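Entry 14. Ran structure prediction on the chain below.
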Amino acid sequence: MLALALAHLRLCGARCGSEVPQIGPIPSSSMPTCCPAEGEETKKEHAPRHHVGTIRRARNGAFTCCATKNKFEGHPWTCISRPDAPMLQSIKPVGNIPLVVYVSRASNVPRPGKLRAMLNTSHLFGVNGADPYVTMRFEKGDTRGPQKVWNIKYRNQEPVWVSSRSMGTDIEVHQHNTRAEKEKCYVLVQLWGAVLSRLGEQVTGLKAMDTLIGELLVDVSSIPFHLPVPFKFPATNGTAPQGATIHMCLLPPHTPKKTVYFVRHGESTWNKAQSDAMSGAPDGLGAMLSSCDNPLNEVGISQAMDLQSKLKSAKSSGHAKAVQMLNAEAIFMSPLTRAVQTGLLGLEPVLKKIHRCRMMTSARERRNLGGLDTEGSEVGEAIMNRAISEAQPLLDPKGHEILDKSLNGLLVDISEVEVRWWDGFQESKNSVDTRMQDFMSQLQNCEADNIIVVGHSHYFRELFKQRLHPALSSTPLGKDLAKLKLMNAGVAAVTMDFSQSQEITSVELLFGTELVID
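Output, structure tokens:
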């Protein structure tokens, strides 16, 4: 019976038809409304105090705007959603350049119920819905490039990736938007649904029986630079719903080197419960098993404020890397509460200068076995509401002042977190590896060259394990980075050279940061 079921799923997942339609972008008259310009966006800051202006994506891809009551007095911060905003605002390149495809999002992906009906397999495996992801490869004549993957987005009809992949070939770009390759270059884009639940995959050891939702073959010359545009999937045997699209563009060559500051969150209620459980305290294990998305505790709040103090005095310290961190141009935060709170309190000297940050799902903690602390609890602007409300009772007057300064005029990009952004089960190695590709891509293609990421110890450690340059991984520090973890509210200044296959070429611990055991 199981063999028949697997064969049925394989058949449903096979490519339909012998030819893939060649598709161009949707005509401009059908394209979604352009995202707000910088001037338009900042006008939202002049909305009445105590209100949050929130820009949402409608189902048709257009941007709408609404104002919601902000229950936190005196905090005129704003949430924005701009998944189709270009990540690079440079002049279009000319000459022979690497083919880099940026996928911002997909829209109108089949509802889980519709996909189950198409596959008729829910009675066999108890499928709860499709987890969409994207694969892509280039095609030139008889040459087929390696397959590139954009990670699974769980239970999501409007998945957002905002990340790119280098496709493994070059294209020739001319001044007047012409591409004169000797052989025409295409990209084969496939939208998939992972139809076997993560739990089923873990318990049975079976590979997820993924099903092809739709595919299209796109002439690279029809894909613009910088600004993502929608390409519509054709209906194939009824599997691609009417209106399903993928939004993508090409990116020019990137800055090869960047400095990224990894900031671990302060101590959370989970860290304290974990410590208590290890020491045999009676309530420690119970606290670990009964909570998720844990906020900072009093110690963690104090650690974050201590980081703010050290960062504020960076200029007087004369330490080059510390001063450079103070002048960071972009801030990414894991959307887990403890990371957001650490960012709002610890990075106040930077936030009050740049007035923006982005929730980055690829920076969330690695989900290990158990790992309830890696599960989120909120989506959208509710992430900020929870982070603030959980911190406020623990703040002294100085802490309230720091929080007020961070939030005043702050623009929070929630493009990636408007729907559920976490999975309920242990992440596979492949899933973590693909998420790291997203993470590195977002850093690589960010306009800023000086970036702060607020995240988590296990995830940072995994990055060090996989991405340290061999010349660094063999040193005592490199070996420690791969087996120990950053202390709470610790900071590591990381140099990334994206011309290398293993990008992290140097690491320096700042502000007295130490590496500690689990």
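Residues 1-19, 27-73, 114-129, 197-206 have pLDDT under 50 and may be disordered. Will compare against last week's run tomorrow.
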